[in-house]
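Q: Here's a chain of 116 amino acids. Please give me its 3D structure as tokens.
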Amino acid sequence: MKTKLLCMIAALLLSAAVSHAGFAKQITVFNGTGFTFHGLAVSPGESEQWGEDMLESVQGGVLKPGEGLKINLSGDTGNWDMAVIDDDGQQVEFSGLDFTDYSQVTIHADGTCTLE
């Protein structure tokens, strides 16, 4: 009986710890535009700085039209900002992206994005 009770307590404590800890989620950033991305950064919404350029790890350092890049998010997936740099060196930013129920973001040529 004591063993069963200890196991239940341990399970509850583990469950509570996991619910408060950050988690990881893989998302795909899809280039739905007609131009090449030369930079891609993602950061938590509350951050004052952009994260590293995700395209540095891609061969050629670019994301061409019609291509996608899988990236991992750590922590709360409910509030992320993203920036891409286009062929002209212009930076387009997206704020408050909520990936809780989505695993792909498609960036469109008109400066909008769609979560899927």
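Q: Can you summarize the key feature?
A: The chain has one helix and seven strands.
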